[in-house]
Amino acid sequence: MANASAKILVVDDDPAIRNLVFRFLGQKGYEVQSAADGETALKNFDTFNPDLVILDVNLPDSLGYNLCEQMQSRTDVFVLMLTSRTDTEDKAIGFRKGADDYLTKPFDLLELEFRVGAILKRQRAVSNEPESQAMVFGHLAIDPERREVRVDDKLVSFTALEFDLLCFLASHPGQALSRPKLINAVWDYDQMVGDQRVVDVHIGQIRKKIDTDTSKPSLIKTVRGFGYRFEVPESGE
Questions:
Q1: How far apart are CA 193 and CA 152, in angstroms?
Q2: Which of 9, 125, 137, 174 could be joined to 50 by an S-S link, Cβ 3.0–4.6 Å?
Q3: Are 15 and 122 found together in one domain?
Q4: What is the pLDDT of residues 181-190, one digit of tens each?
Q5: Please, are residues 22 and 44 in contact by the beta-carbon 8 Å criterion?
Q6: 123 confidence band (pLDDT: 50, 70, 90)
Q7: String of DSSP letters for 206-234
Q8: Is the per-residue pLDDT at 1 higher than 70?
Q9: Does 90 map to a domain?
Q10: 193 and 113 in contact (C-beta within 8 Å)?
Q11: What predicted TM-score, i.e. pTM, was given to this entire model?
């Protein structure tokens, strides 16, 4: 199995969910460990060195958002958040902390398998990307090779998914790109699952970083009822 060597840490204080996910992913050929709280999760994280963490938001001793941030400060681990929260702002917090994807409880195990496979596929594909020229659009500069974004010549921090989404949009200037197309290209999903609003949340975070006035976005335009379009600024802007 292609993903047999991938290591996954499952963190959830609900024993029924934790054990179900643990057994399911183990049957799919992954190497799996689990934890019921934040303290145990961090200890396991350091010794297990997982490729992916499936992380519940609400834990008895910590918030999953904060654990996500701590873990990603140590390695470049991928994080899939699990939560019973459906509010868009809650999802935005998770993405700001570096989460790669978000799955709302209750969830289907096949959807979980699909998202896990897609995240790990992104990891394998990184080294195969060809070198690309830096893209400059007025005050915005994107360097795909260095994975850096500068706004007014100042380096701005982007999560991996934020960078991938911005880079894909900027690589297709003037094209109206649908949400399913963006999810397929950036999240590497071969089919549409889950909530397409995940794209909207990420676009909102990107706009905050590249525009001084997010109420009047200058580069990423909304195509109502469809998706988004990267608008090249006119000369002199």
A1: 37
A2: 9
A3: yes
A4: 898 888 766 5
A5: no
A6: low
A7: HHHHH-S-TTS-SSEEEETTTEEEEPPPP
A8: no
A9: yes
A10: no
A11: 0.67
User: What are the residues whose beta carbons fall under 8 Å from the beta carbon of 172, sequence distance 6 or more?
Assistant: 230
Tell whether 218 is covered by a domain.
Answer: yes
**CA 27 to chain CA centroid, nearest Å:** 25
**CA atoms of 112 and 211, how far apart (whole Å):** 34
**Are 185 and 99 in a shared domain?**
no
Beta strands at 135-137 and 140-143: parallel, antiparallel or unpaired: antiparallel
Residue 115, domain extent? 7-127
Residue type present at position 158: F
Tell me how far apart the terminal alpha carbons of the chain are, to the nearest angstrom.
51
Query: Does residue 113 lie within any of the structural domains?
Result: yes
How far apart are the C-alpha atoms of 159 and 205, rounded to whole Å? Answer: 10
Question: Distance between CA atoms of 39 and 199, rounded to whole angstroms?
Answer: 32
With beta carbons less than 8 A apart as the criterion, state whether 67 and 59 touch. Answer: yes
pLDDT tens per residue across span 13-61? 999 999 999 999 999 999 999 999 999 999 999 999 999 999 999 999 9
Tell me the average pLDDT of the chain.
85
Lookup: tokens for 120 = 């790990």
Final residue in a domain of this structure, among 90, 106, 127? 127
Q: What is the CATH number of the domain that holds 86?
A: 3.40.50.2300
